[in-house]
Structure formats: C-alpha cells, structure tokens
Amino acid sequence: MRTKPVLTDDDVKAMAAAAEAFAKGHQWNVTIAIVDDGAHLLHLHRLEGAGASTVDMAIGKARTAALGRRETKAYEDTIKQGRTAFLSAPMNAMLEGGVPILVGAEMVGAVGVSGVKSDQDAQIARAGIAALGIENV
Predict the structure, then answer these.
(1) Does some domain include residue 1?
(2) Using CA atoms, how far apart are residues 46 and 54, in angstroms rounded to an integer?
(3) Nearest to 71 by CA among 103, 130, 112
(4) Nearest Cα to Cα of residue 33 among 8, 6, 12, 9
(5) What is the pLDDT of residues 58-77, one digit of tens each?
(6) What is the SS3 assignment for 72?
(7) Is residue 88 part of a domain?
(8) Domain extent at residue 97
(9) Would you say the C-alpha torsion 49, 31, 72, 104 has a positive or negative sign?
C-alpha cells in the first residue's frame, strides 16, 4: 500500500486566504472553490460583487480540474482547436480557471475561480495554490 498526501483544513484555509487576497488586491470580484482529489467541495466563497453564475462555474472548474487531473485550459484549447466533439465529455466547466493541486505526481485537489477573464481566474487559483509552498507543475 502506498501513502498519499491529502489537503488538510489548514491547507484549504491558507489557499482560500491567499486566493482571496490576490483577487481583492486586483479588485476582482470572483467566486473561489476548492475541492479534494475526488472533486468534493471543501471551500466556497463568493466575494462581494461577484455574479451569481460564478458560483456554479467556479465549482465546475474545480471539479473538472480535479477529475481530469489537468488545468481546464487544456480542455478549452482542445475545443478551440476544432475538436468540438469534446463538448460532449462529462465535464461541466471546460474554460480556463480550474487548476489541479499537485504534490509531486499526486493530484490532491483543485482550485476553481470564476468572475473575471479566464486567464485572471487561473492567476487567482495559482496564487491560492502557491500558499502551500509546493511546486505545482
């Protein structure tokens, strides 16, 4: 049997605080979702001024990144390159802004953000993950 790292409550709180601080520092009103490796919701915060639709999108981006074990931008790029059949994949948020959390080769969760431009959503997610002090590649 192997040992696998998992997110702790303190990890989730640190990521949430860092992501929120980054978003607020840019005056970006977003929703931030953090899920575990099974795509189960661990944290959700809709910042003041973020649109109602950002809640479902942030959760969807986090879940898609966790279940697919890759950034949601990869799915968006695949579709943009003409593989429109991929739209039938059982994922519900294939836009940039969902980033998996990797500890070495182990995927332990994901952060999904929605509310600003997709590349900005991803910046916020990465800022949250950076609070863990790991190299997330």
Answers:
(1) no
(2) 8
(3) 112
(4) 12
(5) 999 999 999 999 999 999 89
(6) helix
(7) yes
(8) 9-130
(9) positive
